[in-house]
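Progress note, project year one: complex with manganese (II) ion.
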Amino acid sequence: MEFTIKAGSPEKLKSGCVVAGTYANGDLTAAARALDKACDGAIAAVLARGDLDDKPGSTLMLHDLAGIAAPRVLLVSLGKADELTDKTYRDAIAAAARQLSGSVAGDASFCLADAELPHRDLAWRLAQAAQILRDSTYRCDELKSKKEESRKGIKKLVFIVKGKDSESLEAAVLRGEAIAEGVALAKTLGNLPANVCTPGYLATTAKKLAKDHKIKVEVLERDDMEKLGMGSLLSVARGSHEPPKFIILNYKGGKAKDKPVVLVGKGVTFDTGGISLKPGEGMDEMKYDMCGAASVLGTFKAIARMELPINVIGLIPATENMPGGSATKPGDIVTSMSGQTIEVLNTDAEGRLILCDALTYAERFEPAAVVDVATLTGACIIALGNFTSGLLANDDELAAELLASGQTAGDKAWQLPLWDEYQDMLKSNFADIPNIGSKGAGTITAACFLARFTKAYKWAHLDIAGTAWKSGADKGATGRPVPLLTQFLIGRAGQ
Ligand code: BES
Ligand code: MN
Ligand code: ZN
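Model obtained:
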């Protein structure tokens, strides 16, 4: 879907479909009012009959209205005008996107961004619309032998704005598109099965990204990791025949002297649990255990596309977690790159074991901040469900920055406490630290474990176990938290 921005009167637009918003109780947005006037009140009459539900996201397609140049008018309900929220706006855009994808209109004029949303400027409304519309065209049919071929869907879409379009609005649309492309990459990597998306595949994907954009990539092999003393990461890889990879991405969009933000993504391409084997039901979903890594790659794609003036390092420890003759056993003690010894009481708590070495590696970049992203704990799904990522941090300012970025991006997180009291739940009789805590607060004790490796810098941890993918009928990766991370970096770049 190609986007442009234009100023114009909705009734005179010669596209396949004009999209305009309506409010509950027959109230109209400015665009819908202009359309209604041109067709002598035909729209108001249809609404008065109750053909369009007041619920936000309800839609009604009207055809061949006299006085309106476009053959189709898609009305989208925004709910009550004085109750308009980010969520209702996004829901309305998503509903419009669904209708357009099933339409033969071919091109559309999109007026929904004139919704009178408090506290959100036109640039935000356009960026969100571009992102949601582009995201709605995402399909994952790479591994189907027959691709769905459809003549339906919108190829060109014009955002209609009042007055002249400006550079800042164009930049906003570009940002929305770039985020959607990052999300698409993260979704595809997540959705690919573990026999395709191996640690090696993640490394190849990173190299491809580097070829197409201003990104440098280095991939460390098992030998290199051994030399660095990454005994914790390697202990997870022991049970697998797939070689582990440690992927380092470097995006230099800022000044040479600017300290980088470091993003770390958990890249367990399949998590069987290892010797502490998981139950069989639903185990296929553990192919998604590399969604942290996927979101780092997606975020790099987004920021490189928008040429963001900032320096960012990406670190991806990638491995499978398999049982096997040489796999790590419960009770084994391993030495991390930091020198701290770890008693592996449960081989299924492997995410923290690979992240801790990546977090130690991060120190060499003298980072402005480090954010790790991981499908780390089932407990996070119990605590926050599937709408909200868990956030824990050793710095409250950084936490607040990330929470706000999530709000702006429509990719929300909520902070859990990382108080010292919880550190007492991590005690080992035989090593410096066990890899699991005593009963309760599983998301927090996992973060407490990571906190032992992040004392040298400002750090935040995003637990995306509940938000990275959907189960059930629309099973699939969500591409989260690419929008949150990209928004955070946009903010850090001072834009
Ligand atoms: N990848 C899982 C976490 C997970 C579980 C994500 C279910 C999404 C859905 C992680 O490696 C894991 O197995 N965590 C264990 C930790 C436990 C052994 C302390 C968990 O959450 O059960
Ligand atoms: Mn696990
Ligand atoms: Zn895992």
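The chain has two domains: 2-137, 177-492.
The CA atoms of residues 270 and 320 lie 5 Å apart.
No further modelling is planned for this target in the current period.
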